[in-house]
Amino acid sequence: xxxxxxxxxxxxxxxxxxxxxxxxxxxxxxxxxxxxxxxxxxxxxxxxxxxxxxxxxxxxxxxxxxxxxxxxxxxxxxxxxxxxxxxxxxxxxxxxxxxxxxxxxxxxxxxxxxxxxxxxxxxxxxxxxxxxxxxxxxxxxxxxxxxxxxxxxxxxxxxxxxxxxxxxxxxxxxxxxxxxxxxxxxxxxxxxxxxxxxxxxxxxxxxxxxxxxxxxxxxxxxxxxxxxxxxxxxxxxxxxxxxxxxxxxxxxxxxxxxxxxxxxxxxxxxxxxxxxxxxxxxxxxxxxxxxxxxxxxxxxxxxxxxxxxxxxxxxxxxxxxxxxxxxxxxxxxxxxxxxxxxxxxxxxxxxxxxxxxxxxxxxxxxxxxxxxxxxxxxx
Length: 379
Description:
By secondary structure, the chain is an all-alpha fold. It has helices spanning about 1-30, 30-50, 60-75, 80-115, 125-130, 140-150, 155-170, 170-185, 190-205, 210-220, 225-240, 245-255, 265-275, 275-280, 290-295, 300-320, 325-340, 340-355, 360-370.
């Protein structure tokens, strides 16, 4: 009811704002001719007084009277038919305008009563957050949880519930913060550590950084069967160029996962990607494999360092010949960092970015990966 009262008042005010000027215009138009005649008569009276006081010469007074008389005659001799037709036309236009002004609210009200929802109650955010959770959208549930945690930041259970929701919404930074709060307040768990690692990797564009690896390893210490942690640690091996070890890890997971595990699809996809012809044929740049490591273990420190430097130099040469190998560039940057050659690592990073373009997704991944190794693009 209150809605209709407010609507009626607003409609009335808007209609009067249009109608009142129309009415004033009608009155002014009707009196226009009489006003002109009155002005001419006043001019004649003023002329007679000036002539009587000697302020104007008789000849000039006569000429002025003749001019005013001509104006009065033109006013009186104007076409009566034209006046008659003009006035009704003006009245008709005002009538049409008045009807149009009144028709707008009447038509709009009629349409709204049929198509609108005047009886629908308002739904402020506080009321929407207070309704049954089963009737709420995901955004409303998240807003409710955020409002609760803003008022109760020490509710570890609340952070624990919100963190995986953030993760599914791809709000990775928020998810990482929520997982850290849940671990701090409610203690460590494999699920929380694995979720934290996934959030950190997601925020880094899919790169499993050292921080993410620490979280996944902590999850495996608490639960050696945690599939998420095992999967992402294998991804980290693949990103470091240790493809054979990553494949072995994924294949081992396939042998232990139950048939209905959702991780089977992700592992099969990762294995298919790692088995592309370029990798299988050895065309992609590779780092030292397990056999190389075993051979190096029996060498003296000087020979071992020389062997490693040779392998890294070979990797560098292959990348100069085949520069479109994004994983090869990350392996090269990591190798130089491990060897303590920060300048060479930074040079490799710049070359990798130049190959793919500074604004490319690969360049962003390179920069994030280097930062995870403690390497800044410029120093």
